[in-house]
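Hi R.,

As promised on Friday, here is the backbone we talked about, encoded as structure tokens. Could you run it through your design pipeline when you get a chance and send me back a sequence?
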């Protein structure tokens, strides 16, 4: 997109120079040609073509701000009381117990849908 803009400005500059150095032209006509045929339309087109990029950048900035807000609101992660080895603190990562099923969560309850066989009485 930038290459097209540079090429358009080059063409408009050549038109303005041709207007300025022609026998029937003037410098004021050259300036008006450059501004009205070059700068003004190109600025409008570049603004319109850049709208999707500005929108994406704004959404990325809002998402980053929301993510930062969520991180600021989250409580600090601390180890449960039972997972810390005796004689050390919860802030020490090496102090946390390495037991295989010691995640600090309660055990899963059996599903209600499980079939429990019952014997017939004789």
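Update: got your reply. Pasting your designed sequence below so it's all in one thread:
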């Amino acid at each position: 997109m930038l290459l097209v803009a540079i090429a358009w400005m080059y063409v408009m500059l050549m038109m303005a120079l041709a207007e300025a150095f022609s026998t029937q032209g003037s410098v004021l006509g050259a300036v008006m040609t450059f501004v009205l045929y070059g700068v003004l339309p190109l600025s409008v087109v570049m603004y319109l073509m850049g709208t999707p990029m500005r929108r994406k950048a704004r959404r990325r900035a809002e998402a980053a701000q929301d993510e930062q807000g969520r991180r600021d609101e989250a409580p600090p992660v601390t180890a449960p009381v039972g997972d810390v080895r005796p004689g050390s603190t919860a802030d020490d990562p090496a102090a946390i117990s390495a037991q295989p099923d010691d995640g600090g969560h309660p055990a899963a309850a059996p599903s209600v849908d499980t079939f429990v066989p019952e014997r017939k009485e004789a």
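One thing I noticed while checking it: The chain has a mean pLDDT of 78.

Thanks again,
M.
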